[in-house]
Amino acid sequence: MEFDLIIATLLGIFLFHGFCSSEKAPNYSFMRQATTAPEISHYDYIIIGGGTAGCPLAATLSQNYQVLLLERGGSPYGNPNITYLSAFGSALSDLSPKSPSQRFISEDGVINARARVLGGGSCLNAGFYSRAGTKYVSSVGWDGQLVNESYVWVENKVAFQPPVRQWQSAVRDGLVESGVVPYNGFTYDHVNGTKIGGTIFDAAGRRHTAADLLEYANPSGITLLLHATVHKIIFQTRGLSRPKAHGVIFRDALGKKHTAYIRRGEMNEVIVSSGALGSPQMLMLSGVGPSEHLKAHNITVVLDQPNVGQNMMDNPMNAIFVPSPLPVEVSLIQVVGITRFGTYIEAASGENFSGYRSSRSDYGMFSPKIGQLSTVPPKQRTPEALEKAINSMNALDAAAFRGGFILEKIMGPISTGHLELRTRNPNDNPSVTFNYFKEPEDLQRCVNGLKIIENIIESKSFSQFRYDSISLPALLNLTASAPVNLLPKHDNISVSLEQFCKDTVMTIWHYHGGCQVGNVVDQDYKVIGVDNLRVIDGSTFNYSPGTNPQATVMMLGRELYVEGSSNSSVCFDGHVSSAFKLPSTPWSNSKVIYRSSVRAKVT
């Protein structure tokens, strides 16, 4: 028996090294411009959106099938505004047509952004990496063991332990001093108390995005097209009891039309992974959505599905800027306080975070272009006004930008809104309303979070990083004076934390919903009422997972299409992945379990 096990293990390793191959980012031979694509092509799986979910999906499916991954943006590689921690905010302030970030403003008046780049939001965000809680995993019906294995699969490529220095340490200790306990040290796990979370920035300050997960892909099983904008999903309806996804129509950067079909096969699929704005928008553009709304835009109704675009949610963020008498390190989100009343406390610091760099060409979250804490109201941001504001900021001493933000984000949220089409152009932003703080419980959570932030600022642990001469009300009024959104302002806002929450609400880019499980897709993420079509991304969430959803979105792109027991092994990179154990039984007895009808194998 032992001899058989040794032989089986050696055979497995031999097979892995002999038949698995991979490529290192950014040198993907399978990545090319959509202009090189044939007019007509056929694949087993077509994935719309090469973002935080689409990349791990494509990498997993490519092991055994021919996969087409369509990304409307370009490559993140070689763009310093994406790559370097010190440039955080620069991509968000780039408003050019080729920017990796596409700005939109919700009907609530909050400035926001959606990704337009391979790797999706993981190319733009503050990099915090933290898993969903065990209760969340259980509540949505995922397999706990497989979820953990899939998280590790992601973490082996993109997650790191951040270097925690003076300012972040002061916030950490201030959280504990304020009663956000216990202190759990460094962990990816979502647990109550104060912790150091992971980051997708490595020790050199270089960002690792979901695009790096394509290193797991089988190069011969994947075609990745950049600047490929999908205009609609094609359905077969004639002679069928229900619509069946058949392929997609997309256009390249020159506007040339291409059609890609899924090959014949009961289980071949089109998978929409275009994000919380893009996925419901794509379904509507393809004729799946509220019939009256589709007819108003002269879109042929394939399926009347009134829930598409409903229950849009965005976790509201409110922050307090704390000027520091001492220099502070450049840091994004590292420390988090996970409270027991539904609020997460986080922080970011440094002259580079606020945008003060030697070039003084931009100002991060203070940038007149970004709008999070800008001095120029959004409706007044003409090129002339922006130039004037930047020149005025250049004249300020560096100390004016020294300090950091302590912010709170509420869990959930409970308040919901909706999304509608503005035009039939997939490049145009849809109209979206989030209804921030519509539900009183959301507002109370914000108030409770702000009270914790006030306790941190006044704590002994944080004392060296605040001016004694600036009172808490002054800090609140200072932050509130910045035109962070299009909402009307109120005077002396510090007297009401409820009003501060409403007047200074911002986004932390964790919006979700629009194609939720149970309403638009079933438990296997199949679009209800349609065959051969799934949605897999944050648009399916009924609740934002953990403190930051990106870890779970990347995990989801892996977990849904491969289920393996502890007796399974996975080969990528020409070796046995540490995410899975070597077989404890002879090779021929190892087994693979599949979710529902999904059939991707572990090879």
From TrEMBL:
Q: Note whether Oxidoreductase occurs among the keywords.
A: no
Keyword Signal annotated: yes
Per its UniProt record, the required cofactor names are:
FAD
Domain named Glucose-methanol-choline oxidoreductase N-terminal: which ranges?
275-289
Any signal peptide, and if so, which residues? 1-22
Pfam families assigned: GMC_oxred_C (PF05199), GMC_oxred_N (PF00732)
Q: Which UniProt keywords apply?
A: FAD, Flavoprotein, Signal
Tell me the domain of life.
Eukaryota
Which family does this protein fall into?
Answer: Belongs to the GMC oxidoreductase family.
> By what name is this protein known?
Protein HOTHEAD isoform X1
Species name: Solanum pennellii (Tomato)
Q: What is the lineage of its organism?
A: Eukaryota, Viridiplantae, Streptophyta, Embryophyta, Tracheophyta
